[in-house]
Every structure is written in structure tokens, then in C-alpha cells.
Specification:
CATH superfamily of one domain in chain C: P-loop containing nucleotide triphosphate hydrolases
CATH topology of chain A: MetI-like fold
Number of helices of chain C: 8
CATH topology of one domain in chain C: Rossmann fold
Order of helices and strands of chain A: HHHHHHHHHHHH
Largest interface: A-B, 67 and 68 residues
Number of strands of chain A: 0
Structural class of chain A: mainly alpha
Helix content of chain A: over 70%
Radius of gyration of chain C: 19 Å
CATH architecture of one domain in chain C: 3-Layer(aba) Sandwich
Shape of chain A: flat
Oligomer: heterotrimer
CATH superfamily of chain A: MetI-like
Helix content of chain C: 25-40%
Order of helices and strands of chain C: EEEHEEEHHHEHEHEEHH
Radius of gyration of chain A: 25 Å
CATH class of chain A: Mainly Alpha
Strand order of the largest sheet of chain C: 5-4-1-2-10-9-3-8-7-6
Shape of chain C: globular
Strand content of chain C: 15-25%
Strand content of chain A: under 5%
């Protein structure tokens, strides 16, 4: 890596190159950088007035709206509402789904009897439960939480069972022939062995849960980001709708890329198991 | 190097691989085991409602739901709603496949395009479907097109992203082999890239359809005047819980059928037959 | 002292596809003394791995008894350690963690089990790799870890299921020599399944040759080659060749017979 004029044995690093290398290494730049040209494109599209203002606004308007809502405290309020609901839902979902999943996986009969039911109930789109849940709980927080928990629990259970089943029998045998009793086999072999699949299931479940939350807020809501978008649409405020979508996207993207995907990758790769993770090559 | 004998050690679970040829008797047996849980569930349901005397408003009896179903079929409502929903899914899915596959594959084949679009894709997968409902109804009004748009949207991003991943995962030797045999661009697409990416594409189809289906139901609840989601919503408003449950059951069965009769066989005939493994995303 | 006794072992199973009942193991009996290295060989499909699985307690026999250290075998246990062909190492544990696993199950305190694990790891030549994960090791090293993991528990019998079958030829020679060295040092009781005749003769004190299905013990060949053994010198002994040829002939007969009956 020498440039002309360098003394023999010394590489003179081009400052431009240094800057580029630093930029390339910086994780924030790497994640957000690719969006810059897209933002530009968006801005140009808005400026060109190809679409009427009632339907399409540019990043500057959205940014303004963003600032406005932050100042008024509306956005943070809605956001925290949405996130709280999601966390409740996720918490209960994990609490119910994980033990149930291992329970189903551990008993031949439990699995036989519940598997088709699990598939079926997962197929009834969580959204479809909203009407009946509204009948039972009214337009309330309970209703929304129920739907989120439901959405998360099924993919989770399915993933746990799949994870347990793909633990190679030989590992179980190895543990038993090393003196591990049933409980220890479960804790030391089954749980770690199923972990990548469980991590993937949590990720999927959360993805569904997020969507369920938005739909529930749209239909049932009195607050939250989903409700914000719906309400904005009702009064025709496009920028707020755009804003809502971007906030949602950024939030999920951030959580997925910074928390879920690395967690999945670390468990799988570190343990060198023969599985592939979809995030980032 | 396992011997093909029945394992008797506890904890070993075996599922016949879909590749194994199964006789008619065993298919009957597996059908029995598949339906048994549902029969049991119905029995438990019927007994529980009888014993606790729950009013129909809260939870209808099995017979009520059956009656509601019959009525819907007879009055032609079922056909109408079913038709509307299925049509939207079919159209949305068809457009999604036709648009997403070429796009995704092109991205997979060109690192430059991928660098530009991939982050946006990943971002959009998070938003796919439901979060677009407010903006879709803004742009297209409360119409059929809005619902189809949502279905397309839900599927497009997941499908394109997975197609891209699929192409990127094709072992480089395959591409080199093709190129050294003089394969042109178009043939490369049909003969190498598309089949090579197929496992990921099928995964994307499954995920996309899952999102699409959910999006459909949500969109119909919010935005339309026909279709299963709409039927659900209408019934909820008038507290016709028997219709609500009937509609939910139909939605569940439909998705199960779609998955078992279309997706799983598709996967089996292509990916599994070619000995390629699917990667869970 | 008898470490392992097999008496009138029979195993039937139902063929998954045809529904017929097949007798894999007809009537197998043999004993293994303490500190002996015994291999078992036979034509393909003779059920030698099944015998191992029955001894290990993974599979139940149809008839007959398996006695280890005086007690009948009813399930898997640390008195019969198993080294698997696919190594079956726990991918989420380090090399040290894998090696110490059995001791942990026994309740040995941390300091002591770490010390013992380290001792056996360096015995098999893995000193310095304690913190690595299995997937970072080569195939040969993984098998060494598999052996160490079992030996550290000082089982009554060490069962080895074609452990070197999926290793390349060069590494295999090295592993065979290392196994012999460890064996000659510690004198565990070893029951070794293989299909490689030279390997069996080189490693063992006795070689059990099974017949084809339904298998019985065809012959037990005593390998009275001197110890310590190393590949080059031992294989050049005329006795080695003689023993290997004998076994090859036996197997050949069995396989021809099998083909004839199957036809």
C-alpha cells in the first residue's frame, strides 16, 4: 500500500484512503450509509411533484412533522404505549410459549395430540382473533395483549419443538453414557441444542407480534403508533402516516439487527452448528 | 450409518421423511392421527360449554357454529366472501411472484445493485403488509385494489429478499461451471439462478404468504365490504359470535390447506427432491 | 476378571418397509476380560454396531444377557463409555467442558474435575486446546476429544463404534497408534467395532468375527502380537499378516455364504 514518493520500507497511507477505511469500518455508517442515496431519491421524487401533496410528501416534511410531534410529546407517548404493549405481550408470550414448547417436545403423546392443533391455530391469523377478543374483552388493553401473546406463542412452540427434535440423538446418547440422568440431559443437551431454533422462533414470533400490535392498534386502538397512522389517515395527514411507517420500520429494523440477529448468530456460529443465519454475510 | 431398525430408546422420535414411499394404509393412519386432536378438541369444547352454561354471546356451542356455517353456505354468503378473499390473495400473490422474483434475483446476481437496494429491502420486510394499510387506503381508498395492494406488498418484500439471498447462496462453482459452458444471461436466469435460488424462494413464498394472508384479513377488516375479514368484522359488530368463530375456523382451514396442498408439495417436489435443504429464515 | 459378559444375545426387529421380522443377531456370546482390547468384525449388516448399542444400553435386546462388572445392563450409564463415529461432541461446550462433562455428572468438584480433564486431554495430545470449541478442531482431534471424554470417567468398558471410519487414512494411522499408546499406558477395557481388518489386528488382543445375519460368533481370533506396538514394526511381523489373512478368509466365506443364501 505505497504511493509514489514513499521512502523505501515506509508506506505512506493516503489520507483519503484512511478516511474511507474508517468510514467503512464504522458500524453506524455501514448500517445507515446505504440509506443515504435512497433518502436522496425520495427527496427528489417529492420535489418533482410527480404526485400530489395529499398523497406523497418528502423527507423534509416528514422530518418537520417528526420534530413537531416530539415537541408536543405525542410521538414519545404513542411510542411508549406501543412498546409497553409489545413488551407485555412478548413477556407473557415467552412465559407461556417456552415451557409449553418444551413440554410438547418432551412427551410423545403431547406432541401427537397437539401438533395438528398447533398448526391449525397458528393458521388462524392472529388478526382474525380480534373480533372475538373484542367481544370478550371489549376495546381494551387486554384484548390487544391477548392477540400479541397468541401471535407469539404459536411460532415459538413450533420452533421449540423443531429445535428439540433436531438435536442429534447421538448427543443425547453421549450424555447418557457419560452418566447424565434425564433432567440433566434436558438442561445440558436438549436446551442448548434447541437454542438456535428457539432464537429463530423468538425472532419470527416477535415479527408477527409486532405486526399484530399494529393491526390491533389500528382496529382497537386509542393510542399507539398504529393508531396514530390510522387517525392520521382519517384526517388525510400523509406526513404523519409516512412518519408512523418510518418509525415502525426503523424500530423493528434496529431491534432485529442490533439485538435479535446478533443473538441468533452468536449462538449458532459460536457453537459451530451446521445451520445458516440469514442476517448479514 | 444407522441401521434401519425401530429404535427403542426413550427420547428417540422418528417422523417418516416425506421422501419415503408410504402405503395407503399408513396414509390412512396418519390422517387418523391428524384429525384425532381436532375431534378431541371439539368434544372438549362441546362438553365445556354444556357444563358451564356459557351464553352464546360469549362462546357459542359447537352446534351453533355448525349451524352458522351451514347457513352461510346455503345463503351463498360463504361463497361470496371466500371468493373475494381468495381472488385477492391469488391476484396479489401472482403479481408479487412476477415482480419480486426477477427483482430479487437481479439483486442477488449483481453485488452493486444489492448494495444499493438490500438495506431498503430488509427495512421494508419489517414493514410488509399491515403497516401499509393506512397509506394504502389513503392512496387507493377503501377499495378492492387497496386490499390487493396489501397482499402484494406483504409478499413482495419477503419474496424479493429471500430470492436475493437464494441467489447469493448459490455455490460459486455452479455459476463458474455454467459460465465456462457458455451460458448467456437469459439462460443463466432460467437454468441456473432460479433453480439454484429455489430453496430460499420457497421459504420466501411461505413467509410471504403468511404475511399476505394476515395482511389480507386485517385489510379486509378495515377496508372492505366483502371477504372473510369483512365477514368477521360484521359479525363481531352484531355480536354474532357463532359466525365469528365459523369465519375464524374457515380462515384457519384455508391457510392450512394452502400450506399443505400447495406449498409443502411444491417444496417437496423441487427442493427436497433435488436434495437441497431449506434454510429457516 | 471378567469385565463384560455377553450371553446368548439375540436381536429381532421389524423391517420398516416390508413389515417382516428380521433377526439381526442370532445368538452371540463372548466375554471380555479387564484390561483387554477386543475388536469385533463381520460382514456388512451383521449387526456389530447393534451389539455395541445393546451393550451401551441404547437398544434393548430381544433375548440374552449383558453383564458388566457383575450387573446386568438396563440402560446407558457411565460404566460403559461410548466413543461415537460421528464424535457426538457438544458443540456449545469447549474442549475442556466436553472432557469434564462426565465428571460433572458424577458431582466431582470443579477444581478436581478440571485437573483430571486436563490430564486426559494432554494424554490424548490435546493440551493447549482446552478453550477451543469442537468445530474448531480437525476431525482427528475431535475423535481424540471423544476418547478423552470417555476415558476420564474410567469406565468399566470403553465402547468404540468405528471411531476412525470417517477419518482420512493418514490421520487414522496416527490415531490408531495414539490409541494403542494410551491403551498400553492405562489399560482400560475396550470393545471396538470396526470393518477394517488391519486396524482390528493392530489394536486388539482378540478379534471376534461374526457370521452373516442372523449372526453368531464365527470365531474368536487371539492376537498374540507383542506389545508395545507401532504400526511399522508390528505390521511387518509375519504373524500379523497371518492373522489378517485368516480373518479376511473368514469374512470372505461369510460374505459368499450370505450372497448364496440371499439369492
Amino acid at each position: 500500500m505505497t504511493t509514489t514518493g514513499a521512502r523505501p520500507g515506509h508506506a505512506k497511507i493516503n489520507p483519503m484512503r484512511r478516511l474511507r477505511r474508517w468510514l467503512g469500518d464504522n458500524a453506524v455508517v455501514r448500517t445507515l450509509g446505504p440509506f443515504v442515496p435512497l433518502l436522496l431519491f425520495w427527496w427528489l421524487l417529492a420535489e418533482s411533484n410527480a404526485f400530489p401533496d395529499a398523497f406523497f410528501v418528502g423527507p423534509d416534511t416528514v422530518l418537520g412533522e417528526f420534530g413537531d410531534l416530539i415537541r408536543k410529546g405525542i410521538l414519545p407517548g404513542y411510542l411508549s404505549d406501543s412498546i409497553t404493549r409489545l413488551l407485555y405481550g412478548v413477556g407473557f408470550g415467552l412465559l407461556i410459549g417456552l415451557p409449553l414448547g418444551f413440554l410438547v417436545a418432551s412427551s410423545f403423546w403431547a406432541r401427537r395430540l397437539t401438533w395438528p392443533l398447533l398448526l391449525f391455530f397458528q393458521a388462524i391469523a392472529d388478526i382474525a382473533w380480534l373480533p372475538i377478543v373484542i367481544v370478550w374483552f371489549g376495546f381494551s388493553l387486554t384484548a390487544v395483549t391477548f392477540v400479541i401473546v397468541y401471535t407469539i406463542v404459536f411460532p415459538l412452540i413450533l420452533a421449540v419443538v423443531a429445535g428439540v427434535e433436531q438435536v442429534p440423538t447421538e448427543l443425547v446418547r453421549a450424555a447418557r453414557s457419560l452418566g447424565a440422568g434425564r433432567f440433566r440431559v434436558f438442561v445440558e443437551v436438549i436446551v442448548p441444542g434447541a437454542l438456535p431454533s428457539v432464537a429463530s422462533g423468538i425472532r419470527t414470533g416477535l415479527g408477527y407480534g409486532w405486526r399484530a400490535l399494529i393491526a390491533a392498534e389500528i382496529i382497537v386502538g386509542t393510542s399507539g403508533v398504529g393508531f396514530m397512522m390510522f387517525d392520521a389517515r382519517r384526517v388525510g395527514d400523509v406526513s404523519e402516516v409516512f412518519l408512523g411507517m418510518i418509525v415502525l420500520g426503523v424500530l423493528w429494523y434496529a431491534v432485529d439487527a442490533l439485538v435479535l440477529a446478533p443473538f441468533e448468530r452468536v449462538t449458532v456460529e459460536r457453537w459451530g452448528m451446521v445451520r445458516q443465519v440469514e442476517a448479514g454475510r | 450409518m444407522t441401521l434401519a431398525h425401530a429404535r427403542t430408546d426413550a427420547g428417540a422420535r422418528r417422523r417418516t421423511s416425506s421422501g419415503a414411499r408410504r402405503g395407503p394404509r399408513s396414509r390412512l393412519v396418519s390422517a387418523f392421527w391428524f384429525t384425532l386432536p381436532f375431534v378431541l378438541l371439539l368434544a372438549v369444547w362441546a362438553v365445556a360449554v354444556e357444563v358451564t352454561g356459557t351464553p352464546m354471546r360469549i362462546f357459542p356451542q359447537v352446534t351453533d357454529v355448525a349451524a352458522a356455517l351451514r347457513e352461510m353456505t346455503v345463503s351463498g354468503d360463504l361463497a361470496r366472501h371466500l371468493g373475494a378473499s381468495l381472488r385477492r390473495v391469488a391476484v396479489g400473490a401472482a403479481i408479487a411472484v412476477v415482480t419480486a422474483l426477477p427483482f430479487g434475483i437481479a439483486l442477488g446476481a449483481s453485488p452493486k445493485l444489492a448494495a444499493f437496494f438490500a438495506p431498503l429491502l430488509r427495512f421494508s420486510v419489517a414493514l410488509a403488509g399491515i403497516a401499509w394499510i393506512p397509506i394504502a387506503t389513503l392512496w387507493l381508498g377503501y377499495t378492492d385494489s387497496a386490499v390487493i395492494f396489501i397482499v402484494w406488498n406483504a409478499m413482495f418484500f419477503a419474496l424479493a429478499y429471500n430470492a436475493m439471498l437464494g441467489v447469493q447462496r448459490i455455490p460459486i462453482e455452479l455459476l463458474r461451471a455454467a459460465r465456462s459452458m457458455g451460458t448467456g444471461r437469459v439462460r443463466m436466469f432460467w437454468e441456473v439462478l432460479l433453480p439454484g435460488a429455489l430453496p430460499s424462494v420457497v421459504t420466501g413464498l411461505r413467509i410471504g404468504l403468511g404475511y399476505g394472508w394476515r395482511g389480507l384479513v386485517a385489510a379486509e377488516i378495515i377496508a372492505s365490504s366483502a371477504g372473510l375479514g369483512y365477514a368477521l368484522f360484521l359479525a363481531q359488530k352484531s355480536f354474532d359470535t357463532d359466525v365469528v368463530i365459523a369465519a375464524m375456523a374457515i380462515i384457519g382451514v384455508l391457510w392450512l390447506l394452502m400450506d399443505r396442498l400447495i406449498l409443502a408439495p411444491l417444496e417437496r417436489r423441487t427442493v427436497e427432491r433435488w436434495g437441497m435443504k431449506t434454510v429457516a429464515t | 476378571m471378567t469385565a463384560l459378559e455377553i450371553r446368548d444375545l439375540t436381536k429381532n426387529y421389524v423391517d420398516a418397509y416390508t413389515g417382516d421380522e428380521v433377526t439381526a443377531i442370532g445368538d452371540v456370546s463372548f466375554t471380555v476380560d479387564e484390561g483387554e482390547f477386543v475388536s469385533i468384525l463381520g460382514p456388512s449388516g451383521c449387526g456389530k454396531t447393534t451389539v455395541l448399542n445393546i451393550i451401551a444400553g441404547f437398544v434393548e435386546q430381544t433375548a440374552g444377557t449383558v453383564t458388566v462388572g457383575g450387573d446386568e445392563v438396563t440402560g446407558p450409564g457411565p460404566d460403559r463409555g461410548v466413543v461415537f463415529q460421528s464424535h457426538a461432541l457438544f458443540p456449545w461446550k469447549t474442549v475442556l467442558g466436553n472432557a469434564a462433562f462426565g465428571l460433572r455428572m458424577k458431582g466431582v468438584p470443579a477444581k478436581e474435575r478440571e485437573a483430571r480433564a486436563r490430564e486426559y486431554l494432554s494424554l490424548v495430545g490435546l493440551a493447549g486446546f482446552e478453550r477451543k470449541y469442537p468445530h474448531e478442531l480437525s476431525g482427528g482431534m475431535q475423535q481424540r476429544l471423544g476418547v478423552a471424554r470417555v476415558l476420564v470417567n474410567e469406565p468399566a468398558v470403553m465402547l468404540m463404534d468405528e471411531p476412525f471410519a470417517s477419518i482420512d487414512a493418514q490421520t487414522r494411522r496416527k490415531l490408531q497408534e495414539d490409541l494403542t499408546r494410551v491403551f498400553e499406558l492405562r489399560r482400560p477395557t475396550v470393545f471396538f467395532v470396526t470393518h477394517d481388518i488391519d486396524e482390528a489386528v493392530f489394536l486388539s488382543d482378540r478379534v471376534i468375527v461374526l457370521s452373516h445375519r442372523p449372526s453368531v460368533v464365527r470365531e474368536i481370533v487371539t492376537v498374540d502380537l507383542p506389545r508395545p506396538r507401532d504400526w511399522r514394526t508390528t505390521t511387518e511381523l509375519p504373524a500379523f499378516r497371518r492373522l489378517a489373512n485368516r480373518i479376511t478368509a473368514l469374512l470372505g466365506e461369510e460374505e459368499a455364504d450370505d450372497a448364496r443364501t440371499a439369492a
